[in-house]
Design a protein that fits this description.
Blueprint: H1 12-18, H2 20-25, E1 31-36, H3 40-51, E2 55-60, H4 63-72, E3 77-80, H5 89-95, E4 102-106, E5 118-121, H6 126-134
Length: 142
Amino acid sequence: MLNISEANEISVEDLEAACGYYDKLIGGRPVKILFVDDTQSIRDTMKLAMRSINADLTICECPHEAVRNFYENQYDLIISDYQMPGACKHYFETICSKQTPVVIWTGHCSPNVPEKAKVVFKTISPLEFIEQIASGRFTKEN
């Protein structure tokens, strides 16, 4: 599982270089990301990592808060933990209901993940995950 100390290994230069594709894709404006995880250290790590790229990050600690933000804003990407209190079938159906790409960022997965969502395990480094985001792997076209 990812922990906050791994964030210290993230190179700002590497993240900025990896961000080029996403910047072109969305016209240079900040990529708007909704990030949902009930673990404080994971939220802290992603906040630190996303600071290094052109990201407008909304962080939520529970599905209820995420659904409220989901309806009030438009996002380029939604990243959500899978196993957390309140993460039921209805929650995942809701966040997958728009055209926004959804990534299930998890340590443990289930066959109940919506087909529309892509799964990324928390065992990858924050740098590799941010590079995948910046490369456009999770865009609508991919």
